[in-house]
Design brief:
With 354 residues, the protein is an alpha/beta fold. The chain has 15 helices and 13 strands. It has a 5-stranded parallel sheet with strand order 6-5-7-9-8, with helices on both faces. A 4-stranded parallel sheet has the order 2-1-3-4, with helices on both faces. Helix 4 links the parallel strand 3 and strand 4. The structure holds 1,3-dihydroxyacetonephosphate and iron/sulfur cluster.
């Protein structure tokens, strides 16, 4: 739907008044009405790097979700303020791994005698506490665009990986990119004593996957892939690695949001694509490339928007920008220094991956 012209004018005026003091980052899953005000757009890896590369900006307004704003705060200088226009923009996947649960899991691994040889690899989509845990235990953060490199690095440091919190990204990367078998992976369930695993299972596994998933991508099914192939002959199926393993195994291409965009950009006119990722991005790409004769459809018509990404809307963005322009800092996201120190080590390890 077209944005309210009054709000567009107000956002523009507030941004203009703030000038170089504000820098607006927009994740690819954000609404069109918000993306139009982003100084840069990107996947979570690119945005983390972009946030770190803006030491001049007093305010970083993060149009994305809470864990991304936390990561931006960790990677920016202390005097820079990171603003999340709606504090309720969380991530259900990140909420699936709490600091207490992960500390308990590490105790379970220690009891089983495998903690010494296990390297934690945590997906960007996790709280700063989980990133700090990762840093404390010599691990790395990864995103969907560098998960393979992160895992290869981790297996040079140790024998096993504890992958948090997205079981699908962990499994898909281990099997597709590192050639492991499904039997090399076990799932640690934080709601069961001992994670629901025996010490023998922990000793035999190479990948210990946390039982977390994305509530949006987890809903694409093998059936959606089969249906779209029947409906659109010659279609290329392109999905995000947060999708379930059987969906990824049935797809033609797999990659992060940035990869999806680049692939469609390079696709020839007349090609047909079914995309399994968040709907705001798929709609934007379908509109952008329709004129070039690329047919882009959403992989499953019953899957909907990421509700927390969508919480950042134009009214919230206008409210935040106008407050900053009036000299009031609102919705600042901060990470305490002790957490920041270790979380930063894990994030910097990611940025240093070969
Ligand atoms: P990427 O943009 O890194 O592919 O992340 C997808 C996602 O789910 C972000 O919340
Ligand atoms: Fe979290 Fe999934 Fe939404 Fe990304 S798309 S913010 S992983 S719930």
């Amino acid at each position: 739907s077209p944005s309210d012209p009054d709000l567009v004018a107000r956002a523009r005026a507030a941004k203009e008044q703030l000038g170089d003091r504000v820098f607006v980052l927009g994740h690819h899953y954000q609404r069109d009405e918000v993306i139009q005000f982003a100084d840069v757009t990107g996947d979570s890896f690119k945005l983390a790097r972009d946030a770190a590369a803006r030491p001049g900006a007093e305010y970083i307004v993060f149009c994305g979700v809470h864990f991304m704003a936390e990561s931006a705060d960790i990677l920016t200088t202390d005097d820079q303020r990171v603003i999340l226009p709606d504090l309720a923009a969380g991530c259900s996947m990140a909420d699936m791994a709490t600091a207490e649960q992960v500390a308990e899991a590490w105790d379970v691994l220690t009891e089983a005698g495998v903690a010494d040889t296990t390297v934690p690899v945590s997906y960007m989509n996790s709280s700063a506490d989980i990133k700090a845990f990762t840093g404390r235990h010599g691990g790395t953060i990864c995103t969907s665009s560098n998960a393979e490199r992160a895992l290869r690095w981790a297996f040079e440091q140790g024998e096993k990986v504890l992958f948090l919190p997205d079981q699908h990204l962990g499994r898909n990367t281990a099997v597709r990119d590192l050639g492991m078998s499904l039997d090399d992976c076990v799932v640690y369930n934080p709601h069961k004593p001992g994670g629901g695993l025996t010490a023998d299972q922990l000793r035999d596994a190479k990948m210990i996957l946390w039982r977390g998933h994305c509530s949006v991508h987890g809903r694409f099914s093998l059936e959606s892939v089969e249906d779209v192939r029947a409906r659109v002959p010659g279609v290329n199926v392109l999905v995000h690695p947060e999708c379930r393993h059987e969906v990824v195994a049935a797809a033609d291409y797999v990659g992060s949001t940035e990869y999806i965009i680049n692939t469609l950009e390079a696709a020839p006119a007349g090609s047909k694509w079914a995309i399994g990722t968040e709907l705001n991005l798929v709609r934007r790409l379908a509109n952008r490339y329709a004129a070039e004769g690329k047919e882009i459809v959403f992989l499953d018509r019953t899957v909907c928007f990421c509700s927390t990404m969508n919480r950042i809307d134009l009214p919230h963005l206008v409210w935040a920008l106008e407050a900053l322009a009036a000299g009031r800092t609102v919705n600042r996201i901060t990470v305490d220094p002790e957490t920041e120190k270790y979380a930063k080590a894990a994030l910097e390890q990611m940025l240093a991956l070969p």
